[in-house]
Amino acid sequence: GILLTQALRPGGRMGPFLPLLASLLLLVPEASAYGFSNCIQTFWNPGSFLCIQRFLKDISSAVADLPANATSVNVSHNSIHRLPAASFHHLPQLQQLQLVYNQLEEIEDGAFENLGALDTLNLSNNCLANLSKGAFHGLHNLTHLFLRNNRLSTMHPHTLQPLGSLLILDLYSSHLANFADVAHSLQGLKKLWLLNLCCNSLSSLNSSSQLPPSLSRLYLCNNSLRAVDSGGPQLLSNIRNLDLSYNNISNVTSFAKAGLQNLSYLLLKGNPLNVIHLLNVSGLQPRSLDYSGLHVGNEGVNEVCKRLGKNPLKHLLLQSNNIRDLRNVSFSHCPPIQTLDLSWNKLRSLGCVGELLGKGQRRHLENLVVEHNLLNSLRYCKTHTLEVLKNISFRYNRILSVSYGAFSYAPNLRILHLNINNIAYLQKQALKGLSSLIELRLDNNLLTDLYESSFADLVSLHTLNLRNNHISVLFPRVFRNLSQLCTLDLGGNNIHQLSNRSFQGLRSLSKLYLDGNHIKKISSDIFHPVQKSLKVLDLKGNRLQYITKKQHKVPPFKNLHKLYDLKLQAQQPYGMKIIRPRFFQGLVALRYLYLSENKLLSISPDAFDDLGQLEYLSLADSSNGMQDLPPGIFKNLSRLRTLNLENVGLHSLTLEVFGNLSSLTSLFLAKNQLQTVNVSVATALGQLRYLDLRKCPLGCTCENLWFQNWLVNSRVQVVYLYNYSCDSRHQLGYVYSFDTRICFLDVGLYLFSVTSPMLLLFMLLPLVYHRAYWKLKYHFYILRSWVNDRWRRQDGEHFKYDAFVSYNSADERWVLEQLVPSLESSQGTFRLCLHHRDFELGKSIVDNIVDSIYNSRKTICVISRSYLQSEWCSLEIQLASYRLFEELKDVLVMVFLEAIPDRELSAYHRMRKVMLKKTYISWPLEPEAQRLFWTKLRKALKGTTEQEELVGKF
Ligand SMILES: *[C@@H]1O[C@H](CO)[C@@H](O)[C@H](O)[C@H]1NC(C)=O
Ligand SMILES: *[C@@H]1O[C@H](CO)[C@@H](O)[C@H](O)[C@H]1NC(C)=O
Ligand SMILES: *[C@@H]1O[C@H](CO)[C@@H](O)[C@H](O)[C@H]1NC(C)=O
Ligand SMILES: *[C@@H]1O[C@H](CO)[C@@H](O)[C@H](O)[C@H]1NC(C)=O
Ligand SMILES: *[C@@H]1O[C@H](CO)[C@@H](O)[C@H](O)[C@H]1NC(C)=O
């Protein structure tokens, strides 16, 4: 990595230590990372980037660091005011660009230059008041342009010219007042297919320019139009789908002159028009009209139907016509209708639908839609079955009760939507006979009880939705005949208990939703009836809680061998707390497991052992003291691809926990207590592509140095990598860029201080040993004795002995028989220190020698050949001579016991040096001369230790 190259640079300060440094760096993994300042690359689509809600003020801070092969960028929900020229120049492959919910006021000419591949541009919800001439320059492949909710009041004639491929132009909710400007600006858009101008301020369609012939859908709702012909008979002649709702058009004759013959759909609701008059005068095709909101009225239906002819009609749309009662409405003149839509009226009751329709219609009606009315009950109707009626939707009504056989008029019903009502009472046999029903929605009602026979006839049912009711008890065998049921949604009810017969008969059930109930206990026998088919089980938000680590006798999911999705998150009110040993045993096919928000205190280390197929696991938001995960917990999850551990209180990542996740691609670790990310863990996660460490207190320490090295090659995206600031009060900066020189120095210095003395030592040791062993040893003792000496001598000179006698044991006889008697006893004046007599027991010899020398005024060296050969004596003479040379204290008295020629002495150069510096006394063999010897010796011993004229020349 960087470290290595830096170190290898010629002249790098660590030159001599490269081998060591290099070997250290081998520990740094090859894994690498990258990230973007304000964008997240979606990991399922690497070309797609989300840069939303980053409080960005300029576009470059969002997109500057995106790679050139980005194909989709979403910069929505920021505070960008303007787009400068060439803002996206570096993204030539961009296909989708979202800039929704910003504060754009200005788009400079050429802002989108080089975006030749762009097909979708969303500039909705901004503050654009005008668009300059060159704003869209270069977008020749753009097909979708969204400019909803801006403040455009005019359209420059050239602004849209570059958009030759445009199909859809959305100008919904701006301040456009001049249709002519808009039409003029569309010249040359040869492919334009849809134009949305709803919610503007257009008051007329007056225009000298024509609309592109390709334009077939024109939405002009919520403007202030009064007439439709002011643009001439050609203007709208190619339009097939026209929305003129909520304008102020009252002049029916204007339709005649507007050339609307090709229309296939016209919505006119919210205009003060008389529909019969319109049909009489306008020349419009009656079948092209949507009759919603045209105040058709009860009699009007009859009139309208007469004009619709006899051929079967696909849709009769009568929404928002203020119809209160169908008893007076006659559909008998209508053609056969496939879909009848009566939504947004004021119907309280439908009566018997069959009675309203003519015979032909009864044989044709397939879809009946009566949503957003005031229906309050559904009654039994026996007469007139509608054989082909397949879909009924009565959503958004006030239905309280459904009576016996309420749908017996539609024996072949396949889809029934009764959701979003007030149904509290579903008669036991309300759904009698609906043996073809495939989908039944009863969600968002007030049901409390389901009876054993409620669903008895629904043998074909695939989907049963009972979500958000007040069901508290599931009576045994209530679903017993639903052998085809695949999806059962019981979420958001009041269920406390389930028994082994609750789901009896559901042989095909694959998705079971029980979330948001009050279930406290689950056991394997509850799921026994569905164990062969169940694939998805949702138990989110129930009341499961475990407070002991005891293992279940039979693990609750033991036989659900097909289950691949299990949701157990957010158990109320305090979470699951503990995941027991082997809790998930048997879930051999499980791929998705959700355990977030469970305030986990502990997870048994073997909990996930059976989940060899698991691909997704979330334990997010479980920080209730669990902190670090038990080692080995993920050991069998070799197929896990996504692991969400956000906010679980992790302090560290260890190989013991994360080491086996060899397929992991996405790891979510935001909001944990991580200060460092372990390099070895990052290395072990060989497939990792996405790592989220937001809001972790990462430190700018050398431990996180590898983090910077990770940036070198692109492999792992670290979310918002460039925004992780140093978590320290003293250090400013970012984790990705903190000054790593300190680490290099540290490493270098560390290496230097450790290795260089060692290297030197190893190099010098043999030499030293060979040449200067004693010198070193001596210097060591010198140093010590010097220190001791200083300390000892502070209070003046008080010697314990007059002389320390250094001699070799071979000369012991002479010392004991001659020296000691003549110096100690004869005149009794000298105290001698002799090693055999005065050395302290238990002290090392060397210490004794040093002490003796320093505790004595003089040192007498009794020199003979054996003395010279002895190591100890050599040390003694050297120590003593140190005082002579270094301390300038003359402490040495040399006595030669035998004549030693210079030739022999030369081997002992220290000795020679001493002899050159001072005189010495020789022991005479003649007895007369011996008296002089003792006199000389006494005199020498009495002499002061300071430099003085040395005793008698020989
Ligand atoms: C984009 O380019 C990078 C190299 O710059 C490459 O690694 C990556 O796979 C490319 N992505 C796509 C989606 O082509
Ligand atoms: C862009 O981001 C916004 C904000 O999250 C989101 O609502 C929108 O769906 C995204 N658009 C696309 C095309 O993904
Ligand atoms: C524009 O679109 C066409 C057809 O989809 C494509 O062949 C061409 O490469 C695109 N131009 C650019 C610059 O991407
Ligand atoms: C563009 O943004 C608007 C406003 O948020 C949104 O309703 C619309 O779906 C977006 N269009 C596309 C294609 O994303
Ligand atoms: C209705 O429109 C026709 C044709 O455009 C026009 O001649 C007539 O004056 C209009 N009537 C009213 C009341 O504006």
UniProtKB/TrEMBL annotation:
Transmembrane portions of the chain: 747-769
GO CC annotation, single: plasma membrane
Nuclease in keyword set: no
Pfam families: LRR_1, LRR_8, TIR
Subcellular location: Membrane
InterPro entries referenced in this protein's UniProt entry, alphabetically: Leu-rich_rpt (IPR001611), Leu-rich_rpt_typical-subtyp (IPR003591), LRR_dom_sf (IPR032675), TIR_dom (IPR000157), Toll_tir_struct_dom_sf (IPR035897)
PROSITE patterns according to UniProt: LRR (PS51450), TIR (PS50104)
Gene3D superfamilies named in the record: Ribonuclease Inhibitor, Toll/interleukin-1 receptor homology (TIR) domain
Domain of life: Eukaryota
One BP annotation, GO: inflammatory response
Membrane topology term: Single-pass type I membrane protein
PANTHER family noted in UniProt: TOLL-LIKE RECEPTOR (PTHR24365), TOLL-LIKE RECEPTOR 12 (PTHR24365:SF545)
Family note: Belongs to the Toll-like receptor family.
Protein name: TIR domain-containing protein
Originating species: Pelusios castaneus (West African mud turtle)
